[in-house]
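Exercise 7b. Backbone tokens:
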């Protein structure tokens, strides 16, 4: 499965590079949206690296990018418990701002941290990992 995923990513990158060279990247990406499902190969990350070359202006988007990059697929929303998990363990949303401060040296409100973590985790939803 990993070999198939790598081959798919390589093929996608080659095609995207060709599309970018010809100025048709947006059309190419739009036609491949079905490949960006979290249950499939991680083409979503590859696409975002090509398409999001400039840094985000929004503080929320910056936080989404940081946590997606650092925690990525390790952060999931367990639909059985209705709670986010990091590395298979429940994530305490009450102390989340402290965790972010300790791990990434950033200050984020509890509300914003919770919104962003839930957003990312729900993109990686699981039914009992």
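Sequence design result:
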């Amino acid at each position: 499965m990993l070999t198939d995923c790598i081959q798919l990513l390589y093929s996608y990158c080659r095609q995207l590079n060709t599309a970018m060279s010809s100025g048709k990247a947006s059309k190419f990406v739009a036609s491949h949206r079905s490949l960006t499902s979290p249950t499939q190969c991680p083409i979503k990350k590859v696409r975002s690296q090509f398409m999001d070359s400039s840094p985000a202006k929004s503080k929320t988007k910056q936080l989404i990018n940081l946590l997606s990059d650092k925690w990525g697929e390790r952060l999931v929303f367990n639909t059985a418990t209705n709670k986010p998990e990091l590395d298979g363990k429940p994530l305490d949303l009450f102390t989340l701002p402290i965790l972010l401060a300790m791990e990434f040296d950033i200050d984020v409100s509890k509300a914003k941290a919770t919104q962003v973590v839930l957003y990312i985790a729900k993109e990686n939803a699981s039914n009992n990992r």
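Instructor comment: The chain has two domains: 2-51, 59-123. The longest strand covers residues 75-78.
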